[in-house]
Specification:
Number of strands: 8
Radius of gyration: 19 Å
Low-confidence stretches: none
Helix content: under 10%
Oligomer: single chain
Number of helices: 1
Distance between the termini: 61 Å
Structural class: mainly beta
Strand content: 35-45%
């Protein structure tokens, strides 16, 4: 039998995640992003089974940072981009594929981007804190 020669996939594989927060100053008048600022977060290592889908891995990353699930985020009118993106070697990984389907090897570095919208064009006052409508203070 040749089946004993075929290696079994590991129960879990270690991946390094390099998360980014992309803050978009979004104009509610023009319905477009006016400026972007990207914050680099500390890398984390995660052990995940190769059968994990990309969508499940993105949800696990978000949960590890205490971020809201993407299906609970509110969209501003005109914002159509995905809230999250996971990349390996510059290529976007499709949500419905598994880590194994994407041929991601053990020990790989993945880039995770989460978009945060900062609404521009109104002023919010809460507990004496003013939220600027034009300055970089929102970032």
């Amino acid at each position: 039998s040749v089946s004993h020669l075929v290696p079994k996939p590991p129960a879990a594989m270690k991946l390094t995640i390099r998360p980014r927060i992309q803050k978009e100053k979004y104009s509610i008048y023009w319905k477009t992003s006016m400026s972007t600022k990207t914050e680099l977060l500390d890398e984390v290592s995660m052990d995940v089974p190769p059968s994990t889908t990309v969508a499940a891995l993105k949800a696990k990353i978000a949960a590890s940072y205490g971020w809201e699930p993407v299906d609970q985020l509110l969209r501003l009118e005109g914002f159509e981009e995905p809230w999250e993106l996971l990349q390996h070697q510059g290529c976007e990984l499709p949500d419905d594929l598994t880590i194994e389907d994407c041929a991601i090897p053990e020990g790989s570095l993945l880039i995770h981007k989460r978009i945060v919208l900062v609404a521009e064009g109104w002023k919010i006052v809460t507990n004496g804190d003013d939220d600027s409508d034009t300055d970089d203070d929102d970032f």
